[in-house]
Amino acid sequence: MIYVPEKENYKCYVVQSEEVIRAYENIPSYNTNINFRDYYIRSDYIYREGTQQFGTYTTLPVCLPMDILTSDYYYRLDFDKSLVIFFIFAIICIYIPLKIFSKLFKRGRL
């Protein structure tokens, strides 16, 4: 599966390069201008928007099949980075304060 953000908003996805997936708002056809968004998959899915014109002599791109695309967050290439950040955040915000409060409010021994 290939992760693409906002799968529902775009009709056609094309692999531009190893690091870029282009999403078209409509399926490309001749003599039209179509808005697109390039997603840089190795750069935390930042994007660049633009418009592409398809003339009569241009080659139309071949869209990826929609069944291999997903907007499920678990398929992101940077998902492991997100997990590491979450665990660091959990340790700082939950574990350390718990340890401090348990030391401060510790009961005396009988």
Describe the structure.
The structure is a single chain. The protein is α+β, with helices and mostly antiparallel strands and 110 residues long. The protein has one helix at 79-104; strands at residues 2-3, 12-15, 20-24, 32-40, 46-54, 69-70. It contains one helix and six strands. The strands form two sheets. The chain has a four-stranded antiparallel beta sheet, with no helix packed on it. It has a two-stranded parallel ribbon with strand order 1-6. The chain starts with a strand and ends in a 6-residue tail after the last helix.
Low-confidence stretches: none
Largest sheet: 4 strands, antiparallel
Give the topology string: H per helix, E per strand: EEEEEEH
Kindly report the spatial arrangement of strands forming the biggest sheet: 2-3-4-5
Measured as a percent range, the helix fraction is: 10-25%
Rg is: 23 Å
Number of strands: 6
Specify the number of helices: 1
Inertia-based shape: rod-shaped
Mean pLDDT over all positions = 87
Helix/sheet category: alpha+beta
**What fraction of the residues are assigned to beta strands by DSSP?**
25-35%
The N- to C-terminal Cα distance equals 60 Å
Topology:
Layout: E1 2-3, E2 12-15, E3 20-24, E4 32-40, E5 46-54, E6 69-70, H1 79-104
Parallel strand pairs: 1-6
Antiparallel strand pairs: 2-3, 3-4, 4-5
Structural features:
four-stranded antiparallel beta sheet; alpha+beta; two-stranded parallel ribbon; about 110 residues
